[in-house]
Specification:
Blueprint (H helix, E strand, L loop, with lengths): L3 H27 L13 H6 L1 H24 L8 E5 L11 E6 L9 H28 L7 H4 L18 E3 L3 H10 L15 H16 L7 H9 L4 H16 L10 H18 L7 H21 L8 H13 L14 H17 L5 E3 L1
Antiparallel strand pairs: 1-2, 3-4
């Protein structure tokens, strides 16, 4: 089905991504880097240990993509092999990265079936989710003693140690319902790490990132996996649901971007820039110019008003880039098919299960830097 050249290219990208995620894992889990010196230098021993992060993480992503691939085979839809995208930024002097930007599969044939879109879209997240649950369960059930963190941060053992909060960048993972629930049910309460220390537990960190990617893919917008699910469940309402969710997503992400408490000289520059940014986010929405402008100006006005009455309320600005990619590159509309045939009961149950999984995996603030 595929040419030898395709197997070679996709295989090389997979191996390269496995390498970059292992390097990223050594930086997160053990604070070891190829550019480090002394005790922070990466050795072969710690490189191998870091595969406890990279193998389950990339394995979950691979299962996700194979779910799409095998379902495409089942429905006789031509598609590419999974293409993994390496994303290690260690060469920039220790810039944080998780080792990959994910993986993609491209459909090569026209699909004129709501059922095929639904099956191919939902298969990936469900398959990856099952493996992510197993990885997290293993991670929570095999947590090391609380003293394990002293191996990574020996300074924590010093009773006189204090963090200089003015000079130290504080990073922690934002919790989600499923991660929190599994920790409460499976883990020894005395061994559960703080969310700022989960990065040092390879299986927990890999599982958390898998839930993060699952939630991203299940957003009910456009041609994301969640968009395919909604396209199947609500055959006549997908466009409206996608647009509403996309608008709420951007509205939350941009809270705090413009505020009456900002200096006036910054505000007069920042407001036009932000409005132009929002305009590009809606460029592939399928809406006419007047409607786009109405939505954009209304959103900015509401965000400005919220900032006035609730200055402490802030969204998650990290979502803005993803919103831009969705609106400008992928678009928020879904390819139409002929007819409005409803899904059978079994597929409807699976669709609502996918929506539940999204709610359990989604974190409003997944990565928090302070």
């Amino acid at each position: 089905m595929y040419k030898p050249k395709e197997y070679l290219i996709h295989g090389l990208f997979f191996i390269l991504t496995l390498l970059t995620t292992t390097l990223a894992g050594s930086e997160w889990v053990y604070l070891k880097s190829v550019y480090g010196e002394g005790e922070h230098a990466l050795t072969w021993e710690f490189f191998l240990k870091s595969t406890a992060y990279s193998v389950p993480f990339i394995g979950i992503l691979l299962v996700h993509e194979l779910g799409h691939l095998f379902t495409s085979f089942y429905h006789k839809v031509k598609c590419s092999l999974p293409l993994f995208i390496p994303g290690w930024l260690g060469f920039l002097g220790g810039a944080p990265s998780i080792g990959t930007f994910g993986a993609v599969i491209r459909m090569k044939s026209f699909v004129n079936s709501r059922i095929k879109f639904f099956d191919i879209g939902v298969a990936g997240p469900l398959a990856g989710f099952v493996v992510a649950i197993m990885v997290l369960a293993y991670g929570f059930l095999t947590l090391p003693p609380a003293e394990y963190i002293y191996e990574i941060h020996p300074e924590y053992a010093d009773p006189n140690f204090e963090v200089n909060t003015e000079e130290t960048l504080n990073f922690r993972l934002g919790n989600n319902l499923l991660f929190s629930l599994m920790g409460d049910l499976l883990a020894n309460p005395e061994r559960i790490p703080e969310m700022s220390e989960v990065i040092h537990y390879p299986y927990l960190f890999a599982g958390y990132l898998a839930l993060f990617f699952t939630a991203l893919n299940l957003l009910p917008i456009g041609q994301l996996d969640g968009g395919h699910v909604v396209f199947g469940l609500f055959p006549k309402r997908h466009s409206e649901i996608s647009l509403v969710v996309f608008t709420l997503f951007l509205g939350y992400a941009g809270l705090g971007m413009i505020s009456p408490y900002m200096p006036f000289e910054e505000l007069i520059i920042w407001i036009p820039f932000y409005l132009v940014f929002l305009f590009f986010c809606y460029q592939r929405s399928g809406l006419d110019l007047q409607t786009r402008l109405t939505i954009i100006l209304s959103m900015a006005a509401i965000q400005y008003g919220i900032a006035f009455f609730k200055p402490g309320w802030e969204g998650y600005q990290g979502w803005l880039l993803y919103g831009f990619l969705l609106g400008r590159v992928m678009g928020v509309r879904h390819p139409e098919v002929s007819g409005f045939r409803e899904l059978d009961t079994k597929r409807k149950v699976i669709g609502w299960l996918a929506i539940l999984i999204f709610a359990l995996c989604f974190s409003p603030r997944p990565f928090i830097f302070e």
